[in-house]
Amino acid sequence: MSEMNSPAQVVDYVDHAASEKAALPFSRLLVMAIMGGVYIGLGGLLALVVAGGSPALQASNPGLVKLLFGAVFPLGFIAVVLTGTDLFTSNCATQVVALWRKNVSPKTVVRVWCVSYLGNFMGACFAAWAYTSATDLFTPDQPWTQYLLSMAHHKLENPFMVSFMRGVLANLLVCIATWQGYSAKDTLGRMVGIWLPVMGFVALGMEHSIANMFFIPAAMLAGFDVTWSHFFIANLVPVTLGNLVGGAIFVGLPYVWLYTKSERNTEPEKIQSLVKRIDAGH
């Protein structure tokens, strides 16, 4: 069995990594985020072709198709973590850790979030064009094309609060995947730690803003009739807000409070121990 980092060590690592990322110049952070968006699109492409290419299975066992879709989608997330690129949804949790410990300012956190989000959007949209339109992979006669169009249609049908809560739950699992990935000290352990939660949120049909930056534009290029403004208002805005809450409030803040506070709680114990030694000396 491989060694693992403790939860406290993971929080320390996240703090250090988030602080270093916040210090990066605009150009480096933007390129990292663009690459992250491209990689998420790659995972989405594989999931569409594998799951969407199984129409008979979809008709007989839709739950198994969801599991199949979720099983291959984490390719992009694993690539992001292992190759050191950047993802807005992970930053929702990690930057909060550095902020709580006063290693970055609120202004810096907002800067990282904005640059990361912009770069992810650029990378995901490029992937949508490069993987679909430029390759002729999503022609009308392909079964995964109809699967993509149906998925995009359903994503834009949900009410605001449904999309918001699906965004919360999606990024809760994505950030758990990030934490579990950092807990492992070997490549295989990190891959497994990332894969399971990401597979879970995808199979459950939760909403990830960066993935949707690939899926919806790809559907638009494949013939889905929707405006950019409708995509933003009906899906991207509520999902992004949900992702922010899911990562920052449900993962970043609890973990940094738990493991920073526990270190502070050792101070009274040290003082009591010192007093006992002094008393014993008398």
UniProtKB/TrEMBL annotation:
Task: Tell me the organism.
Answer: Iodobacter fluviatilis
Keywords from the UniProt entry: Membrane, Transmembrane, Transmembrane helix, Transport
Pfam families recorded for this chain?
A: Form_Nir_trans
| UniProt main location, coarse | membrane
Q: Which InterPro entries match?
A: Aquaporin-like (IPR023271), For/NO2_transpt (IPR000292), For/NO2_transpt_CS (IPR024002)
Which molecular-function annotation in GO is an example for this chain?
Answer: formate transmembrane transporter activity
Q: What is the protein's given name?
A: Formate transporter
**Gene3D superfamilies (UniProt xref):** Glycerol uptake facilitator protein (1.20.1080.10)
Residue stretches spanning the membrane: 29-52, 64-88, 109-131, 160-182, 194-216, 236-258
